[in-house]
Design brief:
- The protein is α/β, with parallel strands linked by helices.
- It has a domain at about 100-160.
- Helices cover about 35% and strands about 25% of the residues.
- It contains eight helices and ten strands.
- It has helices at about 5, 55-60, 105-115, 120-130, 145-160, 175-195, 205-210, 245-255, and strands spanning about 10-20, 25-40, 45, 70-75, 75-80, 85-90, 165-170, 195-200, 215-220, 225-230.
- Helix 3 (about 105-115) crosses helix 4, helix 3 packs parallel to helix 5 and helix 4 (about 120-130) crosses helix 5.
- The longest helix is centred in the C-terminal third of the chain and has 17 residues, at about 175-195.
- About 40% of the residues are buried.
- Adenosine-5'-triphosphate binds near residues 30, 50 and 221.
Length: about 260
């Protein structure tokens, strides 16, 4: 394992998250005893039904949700707060875009903080604005965009920052089927071209198999845990018409039918 891979490794040990029940005074566990090791450079998918705690777990890794007990480590360091190394694509784009900045200014925000020169900023933002299909919309404000367009601005911004670890919470959920397919392909391409670690949350089995090197199944909450991990033995780019794809799909589906 190279130094970058070691640095981008994520280890979760006996992680619990609970909220106090307002009435009963007892603890209500959202996730309980989650253990997971994601290697640097891995593409790991978290798959589970709505409300099981996927966003909560991602928030714990990102550092903006505080744990009840256990540990999340990135490399040697324990996660205590959000950090530059871990970029998050939120489920709701609205919570992350600045309404008073244009598309281009939103995309360039992190680059500006890193004091990247204007010409270089433009080169990078041009590249990712084009990649997410928003060329021609650079001067618009978030209120002038559809939900899917806002989500793509968020994606362009996160990718422009070139983070070591990408935490993505159903990032393509608001997109139409065609755009979603394009973004899935581009994400796989970007990931394969770099040594990024990706943790990708979805409730869509097909999307999980299209993208993941491994897929962690989360059990329905409360007290959700990662009940099973599948290795995806398929090469990229993946083909949904492949019988092996179909077989894995059926196998994973059976978890949710039980
Ligand atoms: N701040 C909070 N206080 C109390 N309960 C919370 C809080 N945040 C989330 N929850 C509860 O935690 C559970 C898991 O929520 P979470 O958003 O992590 O699910 P999810 O798997 O991301 O769902 P979805 O697929 O619908 O996005 C839910 O039952 C939710 O009501
Ligand atoms: Mg969620």
């Amino acid at each position: 394992m190279g130094p970058a891979a070691k640095r981008n490794e994520i280890r979760i040990e006996r992680l619990d998250k609970s909220y106090a029940q307002p009435s009963a005074g007892e603890l209500h566990y959202i996730i309980q005893d989650v253990n997971l090791a994601v290697k640097g450079g891995e593409f790991f998918v978290l798959l589970g039904p709505s409300g099981c705690g996927k966003s909560t777990l991602l928030g714990l890794i990102a550092g903006f949700v505080s744990k009840t007990s256990g540990a999340v480590r990135v490399g040697e360091k324990e996660v205590e707060r959000p950090g530059q190394d871990r970029a998050v694509v939120f489920q709701q784009a609205d919570s992350s875009l600045f309404p008073w900045l244009t598309v281009r200014e939103n995309v360039e925000f992190g680059l500006r903080i890193k004091r990247i020169a204007a010409a270089k900023r433009k080169e990078i933002s041009d590249q990712f604005i084009e990649l997410v299909g928003l060329k021609g919309h650079e001067g618009k404000f978030p209120r002038e965009l559809s939900g899917g367009m806002k989500q793509r601005v968020q994606l362009a911004r996160v990718l422009s920052n070139d983070p070591a670890i990408l935490l993505m919470d159903e990032p393509f959920g608001a997109l139409d089927a065609m755009t979603r397919r394009t973004m899935q392909k581009e994400l796989v391409r970007i990931w394969r071209d770099t040594d990024k670690t990706v943790i990708f949350v979805t409730h869509d089995i097909q999307e999980a198999i299209l993208l993941g090197g491994r897929i962690g199944i989360m059990s329905p909450g409360p007290s959700s845990k990662i009940s099973h991990i599948y290795d995806v033995p398929l090469s990229y780019p993946r083909d949904i018409a492949d019988p092996a794809f179909h077989a894995l799909h059926a196998q994973i589906q059976s978890h949710f039918d039980e």
